[in-house]
Amino acid sequence: MKPQCIKTASLIFVFLLSVMNLSSQQIFTLQQSLEYAVENNRNLKKSHYDKEKAAFARREVLGALFPQISGSANLNDNLKKSKFIMPNFINSMLPPSAQDPDAAKYMTIEMGTNLNANAGLSLTQQIINFSLFNTLEIAKAAEKMAALGVESSEEEVIYQTANLFYAIQSSEYAVVQMEKSVELVSKMLEAMEVNYKNGLVKKIDVDRLKVNLVNLTTQKSTMINRVDVQKNLLKLQMGFEINNPIKIQPISIALFEEKAKSNVRLLFDIEGQTSYRLLMEKCNMANLQKKSAVFENLPILSLMFNYQYSGMSDEFFRGETNYWYPTSVVGLNLRVPIFSGGSRRAKIHQNSMEIRKNQEEIEILEQSLNMTFINAQMKLDDAHNTIIVQRENQNLAEEVFAVTENNYALGLSSISDILNASQSLVQAQMSYANALNDYLKAHIEQLKASGHLHNLLNEK
After folding, report:
1. How far apart (Å, rounded) are the C-alpha atoms in residues 147 and 141?
2. Model's pTM, two decimal places?
3. Which of 17, 24, 192, 419 ranks highest by number of CB atoms within 10 Å?
């Protein structure tokens, strides 16, 4: 086979592979996009790590409630043994005739052996320690807050991903409508160029239509670029490989209109609001911290047990000087706080102020969430009404364009009428696409404000 033929065959093979790859590319639905984002979003993974960290912190505190056992061992070689100084009683105990009048008043005695070693175990067990018991409750509350943090991050991921998904659907719908307008104007231009060659229309009319077609084509290119930017943002939000292409399910106008027609009203559920539950857990944490400050004034009782086995020898633990003996101690240790200079009392007052502050924050948050829900419902109703108006306006613009085009063919309309009708159609299409996007965003806002954002995971 000739080299040129081989090269051509290779190019065809690569092209076929790329076509097959594009055709087999997964088309993401809303549910699939959300599930992928929840599983792969980087920020959400960080929240999961915080949750695991909080769980290990609770286990750390829990471990302090169990017996604490430690072992120890040491071996010492006394290079210079310690000496003990004492009165020279030996000389004074001798008979007077045997006493040395020049003897030193004090004598030194070398203590210990050349080598000594010991090994042992130590055990402590908390019996009464209210502060430590309360610390465990604080660790549990911190773990709950970390879990709610994961839930909050997940809701934010769902919110952002759904917004981008719907924005892409609306933009791609607008691109399709723009393509239809470009196709209509292109066909008109072809017919007009034929009429111009036959002397039926003026050149200025052909040029005006060309300008209109260029403008439409430019608008379409701008809209396509906008879709590409939105898709990159969606990939970043989903944790999708940024260099890989992504396709999403086109908007179903029939399904959308059915949803818009139902215009379901959701009930406000403040208990479903993650921010509210986080604040309530924060209040619980403040109460526990106040208890900790109170418990610092209470006694602490613990059990202590030590066992040790010691040995000493002048040689390496052999011979006549090799001695080993065990020692053990068991007891109770009671610590009673008496005076702290007022610091513990001040700490209790600080925690009391924090509790009052949290109560005010609860009131503020309840009002804010309720207001947000009311505004979201109003916004959804307004977007619903706008959808109806813009859909009717687009249908009317299509009819006007069709009538104007027909009248132009019959010589009853001018080129200006055609251009105006074309521009009105494009504007109506864009307005309807924007109305779609606004309604879908308002739908997400309503779900979020009502505490039902996770319902998006089950939407089509």
Report:
1. 10
2. 0.78
3. 192
